[in-house]
UniProtKB/TrEMBL annotation:
<feature type="domain" description="ABC transporter">
    <location>
        <begin position="3"/>
        <end position="231"/>
    </location>
</feature>
<dbReference type="InterPro" id="IPR017871">
    <property type="entry name" value="ABC_transporter-like_CS"/>
</dbReference>
<protein>
    <submittedName>
        <fullName>ATP-binding cassette domain-containing protein</fullName>
    </submittedName>
</protein>
<dbReference type="InterPro" id="IPR003439">
    <property type="entry name" value="ABC_transporter-like_ATP-bd"/>
</dbReference>
<dbReference type="InterPro" id="IPR051782">
    <property type="entry name" value="ABC_Transporter_VariousFunc"/>
</dbReference>
<keyword id="KW-0813">Transport</keyword>
<keyword id="KW-0067">ATP-binding</keyword>
<dbReference type="GO" id="GO:0016887">
    <property type="term" value="F:ATP hydrolysis activity"/>
</dbReference>
<dbReference type="InterPro" id="IPR027417">
    <property type="entry name" value="P-loop_NTPase"/>
</dbReference>
<dbReference type="InterPro" id="IPR003593">
    <property type="entry name" value="AAA+_ATPase"/>
</dbReference>
<keyword id="KW-0547">Nucleotide-binding</keyword>
<dbReference type="Pfam" id="PF00005">
    <property type="entry name" value="ABC_tran"/>
</dbReference>
<dbReference type="GO" id="GO:0005524">
    <property type="term" value="F:ATP binding"/>
</dbReference>
Length: 246
């Protein structure tokens, strides 16, 4: 049993049309990327999975535990699109502070912050004030903050948006390593960068899942003769066109 959304319906206002309608989704092991056009519902799905909000009907569970339970929230970590640097805090202090907010005692949070920063390859920047870090490094502080309380599932909302190619490559390698230990679901528009590196791909369109499966099955949607290195974009384009007609 894993993180699962069962028949989930969600709308932002009681009277507005649902953004997700009776959605069923089970997160696979490893690294899954969540693709879809603007407004497809990716952030909404992640927010439900992160227990930031709750479905109007249906259930969200992790190993059968419903998302409103404290143990659920302890198992799942979420990184929103915007990471803020906390005024005056170093990277380690910011990550430790997040751990403390999540209920760890000060000493455990401090120790765990060092480990989390090492997992995102930021040990060398641990004592630097977060406001002096680059945008890509600050995102890695965000991932470390998400990891500090030893979550089993990591939910990342467009973590690579605005990163330069080098930072994206570093970030991608870190995620690939992390995904050996925790389940990772991340939304992105960087199809070409990530789709060939991940284990699973899910494509959301207008609140419906139009594809979910392993990377090979996803790439198989690229038309024959697609140039090497373009397969992910081509597969996504074919699936998006199909989804638009469903
Ligand atoms: N706070 C909100 N209040 C009302 N409607 C919202 C709110 N947030 C999102 N929506 C609407 O819900 C739908 C899905 O939005 P969501 O942000 O989940 O999509 P997305 O796939 O993450 O988009 P993007 O790729 O642009 O980030 C959109 O129609 C959006 O306008």
């Amino acid at each position: 049993m894993t993180l699962a959304l069962s028949s989930c319906t969600y709308s932002y206002r009681p009277w507005s049309p649902p953004v997700l309608n009776r959605l069923n989704y089970s997160l696979a092991p490893g690294l899954t990327i969540l693709l879809g056009p603007n407004g497809a519902g990716k952030s909404t799905l992640l927010r439900l999975a992160a227990a930031v909000t709750y479905p109007r009907s249906g259930t969200v569970t992790y190993q059968g535990i419903p998302s409103h339970k404290k143990v659920y929230r302890a198992a799942v970590a979420w990184m929103p699109q915007q990471i803020t640097s906390m005024s005056g805090l170093t990277a380690r202090e910011q990550v430790a502070y997040t751990g403390w907010l999540k209920g760890m005692n000060k000493r455990d949070a401090w120790e765990s912050a060092a480990q989390a920063l090492s997992r995102v390859d930021l040990s060398a920047q641990a004592d630097i004030k977060t406001k002096r870090l680059s945008g890509g490094q600050l995102r890695r502080v965000g991932v470390a903050s998400a990891l500090v309380h030893n979550a089993r599932v990591l939910l990342l909302d467009e973590p690579t948006a605005g990163m330069d190619p080098k930072q994206r490559r570093i970030f991608r390698d870190i995620l690939a390593t992390l995904a050996d230990e925790v389940q990772v679901l991340l939304s992105t528009h960087d199809v070409a960068d990530l789709a060939e590196e991940c284990d699973q791909v899910t494509v959301l369109d207008a609140g419906r899942i139009i594809f979910t499966g392993d990377t090979q099955a996803f790439l198989a949607h690229a038309p024959a003769g697609t140039a090497p290195g373009r397969a992910a974009e081509a597969a996504y384009s074919v699936l998006s066109d199909t989804g638009a007609h469903l």
